[in-house]
């Protein structure tokens, strides 16, 4: 099962490309010219999102390297520990919505310290695979099209993230801790 | 976004001063800003590839076909988007790329979808319901094989690196459903 899924992960993108190209060839689309025409748009978009990326990287970098994240984690620990989230994975739960690569670093630390097959290690791995990178995604996607008012995106996304954190803990408890 | 950003910058700088690490402020300006540029340039290539392919799919009529196929799902999630709109194809391909862990391809396709959704938007500075829904689903979307996590688990010497896959899929499914419900509940009156 796992092997099959891994196989699909590897071939998904080539399959998508094949379908598009073969379908285009059958319909007699001028593949090369049409591709180049579309690709030109890609440049404009990538350049347009650059300032937004700089803004969000700057804010995330400051939060992480100044110790502000650590302080937030320490403040939230007693609160979140009460609802059953192991304190060891709290830095991850807080980092995940802000920075994907930052969160991966936190998981790496947790796995090295507690071991990948420990309960905490499994919860951290599950959380990394299920929770979301909210602020980066928002900055890029809304930035690309110039939307300034995000309306209910943040509350809905934060709620989903919170549920993902809780669900990771519960699912791991059921799957790995039950006798 | 503006308030969150302001808060993050000010709080970060304040903590740097309190912790006696004022030098990191300059370090962040130099390093992280540069990283953002490098990342955007890196994205340019993959963005161009996918927009080129999407352009072929649009001209060949494949996009239309996919949109019709996905109609039952998209009608519920994005009722304000016309059934054969190109945005729906972008959204669908973004979901597929996300599921299979092709992060940068997903970003490129997602930005394309957002641009298409923006053409339906009356107030260009404010997000539509469809945009909010798409972003929430995108952020919490199911990744079938979290390759990065599996790799660091294997590197850390796990005896079964893949045993967390089922747990991840269950947890994400729950959070995605909650996200969708929250989005629908918070939509309110304005389109």
Key terms:
heterodimer, A: 179 residues, mainly alpha, 80% helix, globular, B: 191 residues, 9 helices
Low-confidence blocks of residues of chain B: none
> SSE order of chain A in H/E notation?
HHHHHHHH
Number of helices, where a helix is a run of at least 4 consecutive DSSP H or I residues of chain A: 8
Total DSSP E strands of chain A: 0
The major beta sheet of chain B can be summarized as: none
Approximate shape of chain B: globular
Order of helices and strands of chain B: HHHHHHHHH
Helices of chain B, by number, come to: 9
Termini separation of chain A (Å)? 24 Å
Overall pLDDT confidence of chain A: 86
Termini gap of chain B: 20 Å
Find the count of extended strands of chain B (DSSP E, 2+ residues): 0
Q: What is the strand content of chain A?
A: under 5%
| Helix-and-strand structural type of chain A | mainly alpha
Structurally, the number of domains of chain A stands at 1
